[in-house]
## 1
Amino acid sequence: MKATCWMGKKKMEVRDVPDPQIFNQRDCIVKITSTAICGSDLHLYNAFIPFMEPGDIMGHEFMGEVVDVGRNVKNLKVGDRVVVPFPIACGNCNACKAELYSCCENSNPNRALPEKLMGHSPAGIFGYSHLTGGYAGGQAEYARVPFADVGPIKIPNGLTDDQVLFLSDILPTGWMGADMASIKPGDVVAVWGCGPVGQFAIASAYLMGAERVYAIDRFPYRLQMAREKCGAVTINYEEVESVVETLTELTGGRGPDACIDAVGLESHSHGIGHVMDRTKQALKMTTDRIAAVREAIMACRNGGTVSIIGVYGGFVDKFPLGSVMNRSLTIRAGQCHVQKYMPMLLEKIENGEIDPSFVITHRLPLAEAAKGYEIFTNKVDNCEKVVLKV
Amino acid sequence: METATQQGDGVGSAGGERYLTGTDKPIRAQGEGGRVTGDGVEREVDLPRARRADKLAQGLGWFSIGLGTAQILAPRAMSRLVGVKNADHNTGLMRALGVREIAAGIGLLADPKPTGFAVARVAGDAMDLALLVRTLATPENDKGRALFATAAVVGVGLLDVLASEELSTTAPKVTHPDRSGEALSVKRSVTVSRPVEEVYAFWKDFENLPRFMKHLDRVENTGESTSRWSAGAAQGESVQWEVQLVESQPNRLLSWKTIGISDITAHGRVEFAPAPGGRGTEVRASLSYQVPGGAVGKRIAMIFRDVPGVKIENELNVFKQIMETGEEVRSDASIHKGPHPAQPPSDRVNFQDQTTA
């Protein structure tokens, strides 16, 4: 089959690789129809996440048709159309029983690696380095899906791929960002990053009753999307002196009730702080740049919540812990527990409450995946989201 | 397991003292001479000579730091000292040379095996000589001072060459620590989200153990409380040992040890306890294997540490996977030996059907 392989920093190749097989009796094989490039794939593309091997198959947002099932998969049959959640979760361990699917205790066979780096291991993830299991990803013609009796969700006919594909990651991730912020009617929310996850976080915050959502980015086309499609009030951080002061002013001196970071470890800011962060990252003195998290913490009102859904990999620098402690902030974070949110969000798509397809700006054939990465990482041609059609 | 241990009668013990070492420091610190192991090869090391090399390296290290400090703090005075007339133009270069000197000095003093830094000093001397030749070629410079400086660099250079020679010939290379004759022991704990009765019952039937103890080929119950364990088929070895159940307290404890004449000595102990909050069973396991010394022992040890430090430790996680999900969880990369891209294998993988769930 054809698959998008990571061959080194900024080097993706669509190559011929062996077809996937059933390894475990709870596996299924999916023939992929649509798959997307995620903003977090760009962290791998730009080689900020360690433990990649040349040849690794990329991709953790995918959907398609079931073409083979293991003996112990009773809920799916060949021909079913499914969307696959990006965290691999067994459904049996204590984490899964508590609906913390992205912390599954059984799905990462390489758990010794993250245990050294993070203390304990998160779940396995498709196509997301050997730190999260070394699973082949879904930017390919076929993928093996472990725990097929727990993860994949059946899609009723009548819904298009574009409408449901993002159930795999970015829609529930944006939703969880808002969910962790415990938004109540009347709340004011600020969202850092107007990539697809940020857009969905804004939309979700409104669905949960937020009265106003501020959106922060530097790309005018992304801010425009946040305004027009999601109803956000936008702040271009390159045009204001200080995001924190601007938000303080806009909220009558209080600060937002909830701040959501949808940026992640390649965070960008302006000024000397960014130069220092970038230099330290290049020298491997720090793995992650956290400009957005710093701002989110400083901006948040006393007693408010900072919700982190941007991806971070390791250790950070100048983390304003004093602000968190002295001002009674709550920090919540996590890779999305997709399996928990999928059925509810599918229902919202079915009854027309959300149509996530508005973020798609580019559709390319799988063969042009490398070009898709280039377009997405360089924000060419107002790129917001690249979907690969197989 | 990496720490230095002394063996009573290890591999080919030739009498006298033997040291298994992680670095060569302890060898130099103790004893008057003798045999050094570390890379699996025993060699005579002339300890007095090794100590002389160390002393010389230390002297050169302090010299480097002193010279470098002067070059950084007083670049003009140093330039004039070596005969450069227009000292103001060369402060940057002189300071850079100072940084180089200090780096080499720190290396010589701090590194237990500073051979590389001694070689770096030789290279630095060559660079200094080249600069002095240029100084001599410029007419306005003070020829007398430059010639004096050149002589000094040549002198120190000879000492540097001597030091790097002596260090490289007396430093034992420690690349593959000799592991034979060691005890391998592992302690791990894991919480299994199943009732303690079920977890205990699975473990108590030792014939189940090879399903998660991947270093075992087979366990066969031979009596009420005895079993025969075997390992090594994948490595072309055949090692067998008899095991006696020592203690079994239902739902609390199992322990076992080898009996009779065995290739290895093994002990195992597993404690079971209900996890608080109804979260299943806490399992605490400690396993130890004592393998014999010699070439045979070395091969046997490989069975237990194919991937050093990881293999046995990971087995308790596989135990958890089997108890909770019904089978060992596999990823595209994990089914291969060693690092492998996350791609399906090119051959059809035929896993033995280990599923009972």
## 2
Amino acid sequence: MESFEVSKRVEGKINILYIKGYLDAHTAPMLEDEIQGLVDNGEFQILVNFKDLLYISSAGLGVFMGFIENIRSNGGDIKLSNMNSKIFRVFDLLGFPTLYDILEEEQEALTKFNS
Amino acid sequence: MKLKKKIKKIILPTLFLLLVAAINLFKFINPEYLPGLRDLLFIVFIGAAFFSLRDLHQQVSIYSKVKIAVLYLLILYAIYLIFMNISGALDTSDIFRWTAVFSTLYVVVIILIFTIIRDLIFIQRKKATLRNFNIALILILIFSYMMDSQSLNINIQMPSDDSGMLFPSSANSLTIIVVILMIYMIVLNSFRTYWVKYLNRKQKIKTFLLSGIILGLSILIMSKRRSFTEIGDFADANFISAGFIFIIAYFSISMLVILLYLPTAGFLDRKEKELSSLQKQTRSILGVIDLEKVMQIIIEQTIEISSANYCWLIVNNPATNKYELMAEKDLPLALAEKFSGKFDPDFIGWIKKNKTVLMIDRISKDQRTAKIEAWKYRNGSLLGIPLILNEVVTGMLFAVKNIEYGFVADDKTVLSMFANNAALALENARLVEKSLEQEMYEQELKIAHEAQMKLLPSKMPEIKNLEIEASCITANEVGGDYYDFFEFGKSKLGVVIGDVSGKGAEAAFYMAEAKGIIESLSQIYLSPKELLIEANKILFNTLDKKTFISALYGIFDFNNKTFHFCRAGHCPLLYWNNKKEEIYLIEPAGLALGLDSGEYFKKTLVEEQIKFHKNDVMIFYTDGVNEARNVEQDEFEENRLCDVLIENCQSNSTAIKNAILEKIENFVGDQNQHDDLTMVVLKPT
């Protein structure tokens, strides 16, 4: 089975999640647990860095959808950054860029959070 | 090999017995010829004969051994009677020779009886048993030799006196020591009568009587024996005397021991019967595969074995690592209720920790049980037996009696033995149940798969001037892909392909739901855009937050030769324009269904229109096609898809579909299909 890892970095009020490997139906619960943990702690400013992600399936995309409503109603957001073109293509096809901030670089996203 | 066995079993014993006889008979032909050496050889060969014959009766049962001993003595007695009969008619020198013949027969029979005594002594043998027996035997042989040589030195024809011949007047201290030692060893060996307890009550009584016969015959023969010892005190006569002493000593003590065992014999028999029936029963549970039944049998048998007032079985639930009440009989309700909560009393903890039987004689006094109020009678006793499998306490069996000191050590042993089988039976039943569940689960998935396949159109619509071909290959038994067609009279055809996010059963249910919604909306909204906007509204509210559906919906209008379609987050439309001979991936903007409540969806969705021509090809597909992966984890991608289409654009729709599937199959190789793979090929003609 393909592997998946999440690591976390905190920058001010923003929690940055670095996701790595394959995000699919089997590994999605790991990311879900991670985000759930942040939400439970009242952390609603979440940036997900896709730099090392190799693959995402529809179940992986679903993770963000599961939280976005709650996080936005709490004044926060999930922003996504550093996607490779293949992964961006998946998001783009489904129309995610209309609904989510998807940024080229982590820094851009941080700036956007703080503005 | 066979010959060796034969030599050992038949030839050697016969040879030794013949030698014994030859030497003994020779003595009477020429008594003065080297008497010391002759007697030495005589006893050595007796020893050898015994040694070679020692396993003669090994295969025979204990009771039969005693019977055979009796038979031998009867033969001996018969020989004696014959001897007595003929001796009267013989003159002295003839008696002399006949005596030799008969004493030889006596010696042989005594050797045979010795082998039986040896067998009996060796039952439940210990390290010292063999040694003690051999010492006794050697002492008997030494005794036979010594007494003889001495008496020979004094007088060959020793006058008999009434005190027999055990202590000749000339006996020196060495002889006395040998005699005392011999008697001591004979008595010591005679106390080895463990065989008695292996007899049942009936056999004990019979054996007691048989031993009596042995004693009677031995004493009878011994007392009359003088008739041929009168003639001479030779090694054979001494051996016969010592032999009878041993036989008499051994069987008198055996009789005593049987007498002691007799009162308890009935009880022991019953116990043994119980045990053997228990073994049969417990073995029979191993054949039962129904878990409930196994547990019920365990309970019933526990009650039966221990005569407990009530009994229950708790089994470890691997999921919670708690012991749960699984079966009971007459368990007081108050106590049973305890098991539904988080009840972990001390006595359960104790068994779990010690992995051994817990016997509590007084429930009210033992600190492990005294705190619990739920016992029906507080003055009771408890027996708790762990069911152990691979060193793990998988369950516990409890039996309670409403009296104190109700259980005895025997209950402990018997129930522990029973528990071993019970643990195994439980595990067997559990495994069988698990595999049955697995099978049922697989069967249900198969049914689900068939049900889902029925949601797809069973055959392609027959439309003039349009070839239609479709394929849906699911990665698991059930999946989230689907396609559908809607005919609006003869001039219009609606085509939809959809892909529910996620996998398996959840995706399959949403697929069924989406199919129903789109099918009903298709009759109301003739514009793809309007239809999808409505579908999104409904699905946004019904789908799980995490779930979305991508779809491509299009309508052919054969009157105008137009095809207009919308893409709700789905893969692009693959379009071969036969007139221009160009290939397109058309991807109008649009969000997947269920992502947004409606505002953005409506704003974003774009309807595209194509004027189609004869021999154009439109292909609807799901991401299972372009994301099909090979062993290097490369994806099939749209460019390969385009290549196949270009190569096959002039073929009919079936051939195009097959070409694409074949290409994907070759690309993927042995890799597992990880996503559903669906496509619809449309070709206007």
